[in-house]
Every structure is written in C-alpha cells, then in structure tokens.
Write a structure and sequence with these properties.
It is built from 4 helices and 10 strands. It has 207 residues and is an alpha+beta fold.
Length: 207
Amino acid sequence: MSNKIKLLQQTHSICDEDTTPYIYEIDKAFRLAKSHAAEVELLCTYAPDSEEGQEGDIPCVCLMEDNVIWDAIEQFKKNSLPADMLEFKPLQGNFLFKAKRNYHENIICFYAFSPELAQADELWYQAGLCMVYPKSFVDTEDETILIHLLDNVATSFRKDNTLAQRQNAQLNEFIKKSEKFNTAVSWRFILFSIFLIVILLIRAYLK
C-alpha cells in the first residue's frame, strides 16, 4: 500500500501569542488552521500543498479538552488503567501518559497533560496533545509516520514564555500609567487646594 502521508522534512513553530501559552514544532506538511471550538487550540491539519490548514480535515494535531481525555486522566489518577485503550504507556515530565483509542469514526493518539504542565493555565488542566487520523491508517506505514511525528511534537512541546512576558510588560505599563495619572491628579488637587486657600484669605482680608 502506497503512503498517503508525505512529510516535507522541515519543521516550523506553532504558537498563538495572544491566547495559548504553549508552543511546539511540527513538520511543514502540517499547517496551522483556525479553530472555532473553544476546547481546541493550536490546530494543525495535513496540508502539504497549502499555506494554511482547514478545520475539520484529518490527520490533524491539536491541543484539546475532550471527555475521552478527561475520563482517561481521572481514571489514571485513581491508579487504574483507563478503559477502551488500544495502547497505553505511563510517562513522566510534561505528560502523564501516552494513549491510543477509537475516537468516533477515527483514531486518536494523545499525550495527557501533567498537572505541572497545566498548572499555570487551568483551561488545559484535563487536556492532551492529540493526533487524530482515519481508522484506515491503522497498521500501515502512514500510522507509523503520524505516531512518530506526534512523538517529535511532544518532545518539542513547551510553555511559551513570550505570552507571559508580554502580559507582564502590559501590566507594568498599565501600572506606570496609573502612577503617572495618580501623580497628576494629586498635583492638581494640591494646586486647587492652594487656590481655594488664597481666595479665602483674600476674602477675609477684604472684609
């Protein structure tokens, strides 16, 4: 069977500096796509001949909160093997485990976020780094390529300090502007108070 998946052997960084404090590296055959689902971020779909991906296309890689991932994490925390898994491997570090299972009409392979990775962003507390692909890829070279690609993405996956640094800079700028505003208001109040005192003294003198 000939391979459907052709990688470009060059990687690029995937991030969203405005919303998501994470970043990963992926082969350029996968392109960033706009996601309209709140539970999906940093969506990349297979689009080797395009400059951008299309939401709904598979194979795809993304950060995702889903009941499948949520339930697996909860079961794992209770020291039990998550149900309905085709493959399962406990991990350490950024991820609790790597798992593979049926997902609607497709297959999902995902790395479940560890509490340490997600603690600074509660939105992703029960989420995973996911690869979704057709069931027809199972036990083919295409599946091997995609799983290896996901492993590389997971290795490169990290917190993006750019967002936090920019937010801190914006906060500091706001504080400085507030301090300047408060200082200006204080001086205006002092000058107004002096003006009133002078007026009162003049009126007292004229009487």
